[in-house]
Amino acid sequence: MDVTRNRPGGRGKTGDDESGRYLDGQMLIAMPVMEDPRFAQSVIYLCAHSSEGAMGIIVNRPAGSIDFPELLVQLDIIQKADQIRLPENAGSMKVLRGGPMDTGRGFVLHSSDFFIRDATLPIDDKICLTATVDILKAIAKGAGPKHAILALGYAGWAPGQLENEIQHNGWLHCDADPDLIFGRDVEEKYLRALRKIGIDPGMLSNEAGHA
């Protein structure tokens, strides 16, 4: 489940191009007028953004009835009888719909206290992305990161596409908040994200902006 091939190169939040500042490591918040049902009221952690495009993980959309312990059983990481003996972090880990692309693959966003050489991608000082089964095995054994979410699929943008969507009032953006990424109140993340940047959802107009 190597994710390196999906990650646009040339990242750097201080880098500028013709479209402006790169936003990797920040949160995207869908404007209420977002018409695409795949992204309506979504909060996305942007893992990569460069002149080659962008890639992010939706952090506020539950993956239906998919349960992390049961997923470990399906992947033959644990036996069904071992579900009740999983560490607390594993038993309560959230499984999310990370986006409409590559939905059959798992992407783990996690705190930077866990790292697998040649597999883990540091995004900033606090957040990393790993997409190999080894991290799931580590979590099942209680040796994984302190904070993590598993996302099925990801959101991707072609070169210049995200910049265009922001310019056309599709997205707000703000600094990343680990609590918004890893918090268990998934259904409340959208409203909390808007409040984080000082916006009353009921008063929001069609004008785009950012914190």
Please give the structural blueprint.
Layout: E1 16-17, E2 20-21, E3 26-30, E4 43-50, E5 53-58, H1 68-74, H2 88-91, E6 95-97, E7 101-111, E8 120-122, E9 127-130, H3 133-140, E10 148-157, H4 161-167, E11 171-175, H5 178-182, H6 189-196
Parallel strand pairs: 6-10
Antiparallel strand pairs: 1-2, 3-4, 3-11, 4-5, 5-10, 7-9, 7-10, 8-9
Q: Care to count the β-strands?
A: 11
CATH H-level superfamily title: VC0467-like
State the name of the first-level CATH class. Answer: Alpha Beta
Instruction: Name the beta content range.
Output: 25-35%
Mean pLDDT: 85
Task: Describe the model.
With 211 residues, this protein is α+β, with helices and mostly antiparallel strands. It has a single domain, classed as 3-Layer(aba) Sandwich (VC0467-like), CATH 3.40.1740. Helices cover 18% and strands 28% of the residues. The protein has six helices and eleven strands. Strands 3, 4, 5, 6, 7, 8, 9, 10 and 11 form a nine-stranded mixed beta sheet that branches. Strands 1-2 form a two-stranded antiparallel ribbon. Strand 8 and strand 9 (127-130) form a beta hairpin. The chain starts with 15 loop residues before the first strand and ends in a 15-residue tail after the last helix.
